[in-house]
Amino acid sequence: MGDKIKTAIEIAMEKAALLDDLSPEEKEALINKKKLEPIMVEFYRMKIDPDELWKKLKGENASLLSDAQLNLTGSLKFGMPVDEIQRRKKGILALETLKPEKKTAIIEQSLGLLETLQKKAEEEKKHVYGEFKKAIEKNPQARVRMVEQGDAKIVTKISLEEAIIQNPQWKQFMLEFMNNYQQEFERIISQIKAQIIG
Predict the structure, then answer these.
(1) Mapping DSSP to helix (H, G, I), strand (E, B) and coil, where does residue 154 land?
(2) Rounded to whole angstroms, how far apart are CA atoms 24 and 155?
(3) CA 197 to CA 156: how far, in whole Å?
(4) 155 exposed, middle or buried (CB, 10 Å; 0-12, 13-18, 19+)?
(5) Ranges 4-8, 152-156, 163-167, 182-186: which has the least confidence
(6) Based on the structure, what is the number of domains in the chain?
(7) Torsion angle of C-alpha atoms 126, 112, 181, 188, degrees rounded to 10
(8) pLDDT tens for each residue of 23-70
(9) Residue 152, helix vs strand vs coil
(10) CA 185 to CA 134: how far, in whole Å?
(11) Under a CB-based contact definition with an 8 Å cutoff, are residues 48 and 56 in contact?
């Protein structure tokens, strides 16, 4: 009963010790992953902020810093709250300042593109939503739905918001909207990762 449950990283480390054919880079990556895991968990659980992340990783090698930045970058998602994007952005930039060869300005510019993209997407969505709202307000029939209950058909009036959300053109717009912005977001993320590694 006193046996400790091993994490996936600890098991991987044990396996790595048995494998002599791991490259130095693979060994370093495993060591970095094991070292970073508890720190990143603290960051994502908001137990530490970007400044504390910087303090915990100060003095570490560049590959570990890059791994932490890649971890943060990979956690960025389209539609994530702006304050959380900014928090992770601060973490990525704070870690960049610890590296011997700094690319702070270019990484900051790319991270800014994510924020700009999020704002642009939100503005477009609000604008199109407003257009749908105007159209439905002008057409009261758009808020009427037929519901079958047994043999009877009941006419119900739905809210303006429900009418927009159920509208097939709105659904199509949202599908294309999410797809287009998600692709652009992922393109910028790939660009940031390349800047961190390169």
Answers:
(1) strand
(2) 70
(3) 58
(4) exposed
(5) 4-8
(6) 1
(7) 180
(8) 778 778 888 889 999 999 999 999 999 999 999 999 999 999 999 999
(9) strand
(10) 30
(11) yes
Determine the structural domain holding residue 118 and report its residue range: 8-197
The reply to whether 80 falls in a domain is yes
Token pair for residue 107?
Answer: 């990484």
In a domain, 25, yes or no: yes
Please report which residue ranges of 49-103 form alpha helices under DSSP H: 50-57, 62-74, 82-96
- Asked if 97 and 137 touch (Cβ cutoff 8 Å), the reply is no
Q: In DSSP terms, which residues pair with 149 in a beta bridge?
A: 152
- Paired tokens of 1: 């009963």
Structure tokens at 116: 């700009």
pLDDT tens for each residue of 134-172? 999 998 888 888 888 888 888 888 899 999 999 999 999
CA–chain centroid gap for 182, Å, is 10
Longest dimension (CA), the chain: 75
Do the domain assignments include residue 2?
A: no
Asked whether the beta carbons of 28 and 3 are under 8 A apart, the reply is no
> Which residue has tokens 């970007």?
50
Token pair, residue 67, equals 């791994």
Cα 134 to Cα 56, 138, 160, distances in angstroms:
53, 6, 10
Q: Are 147 and 156 in contact (CB under 8 A)?
A: yes
Residue type, 168: P
Assigned domain for 26 exists: yes
Closest among 71, 5, 61 to 33, alpha carbons compared? 71
